[in-house]
Amino acid sequence: MNKEEGGESAPARRVVEVHDLATTCRLKKIQAKADAEVRKVAVRAAQAEARLGLERMRLEMSSHEAASRHLARWAAFYLFASVLAFLGYLVVTDGGGDQTATVATLVTVVVTTIGGLLRSVVTESKDKTPENANHGK
Questions:
Q1: For the chain, first and last CA: distance in Å?
Q2: How many CB atoms lie within 10 A of CB 96?
Q3: What integer is the mean pLDDT of 42-48?
Q4: CB 64 within 8 A of CB 70
Q5: 2 CB contacts (<8 Å, ≥6 apart)?
Q6: Nearest to 70 by CA among 20, 34, 121
Q7: Read out DSSP for the chain?
Q8: Residue 113 and residue 49: Cα distance in Å, rounded?
């Protein structure tokens, strides 16, 4: 395509007449290296553009979205750590008395709270899908 037609112009290539095979092979190798270098530069540019796009998304993300994202990643670990700490407490104290009931209640509150927060994150993400956004119009 020509620039006049609205497309990008192809890189200029010189036409060289060569009558011996060795020179032709050398020119082909040089051209292949140049083409590979152009492809590498194009890939690097695309990767840099993708990194910039991700960084832009991170900068534009609200604190609520960041907290929701963190909770979505780490909620299972927090629940596991809470239950593991409770089981460790039972092993250390031999599981007796009012203290066990108090700790069990606290662990239940923590697990319920994290579960509720995780549920709200999932519900909010479902509400933000394009099909639900257009449904109310």
A1: 44
A2: 8
A3: 95
A4: no
A5: 9
A6: 121
A7: --GGGTSPPPPP-------SHHHHHHHHHHHHHHHHHHHHHHHHHHHHHHHHHHHHHHHH--HHHHHHHHHHHHHHHHHHHHHHHHHHHHHHHTT-SHHHHHHHHHHHHHHHHHHHHHHHHHHHHHHTSHHHHHHT-
A8: 40
For 109-129, how does the pLDDT look when each residue is reduced to its tens digit (9 = 90+)? 888 888 888 777 777 766 666
Kindly list the domain boundaries of the chain, sorted by start residue. Answer: 13-60, 62-132
What confidence tens digit (pLDDT) does each residue in 5-41 have? 555 566 666 666 666 888 888 888 999 999 999 999 9
The token pair that represents 50 in the structure block: 């993708």
Residue 1 pLDDT level (bands cut at 50, 70, 90): very low
Give pTM, 2 decimals: 0.44
* Number of Cα atoms under 13 Å in the Cβ half of residue 8: 2
pLDDT at 97 over 80: no
| Rounded distance between C-alpha atoms, residue 26 and residue 89, angstroms | 75
Are 30 and 41 a contacting pair, CB within 8 Å?
no
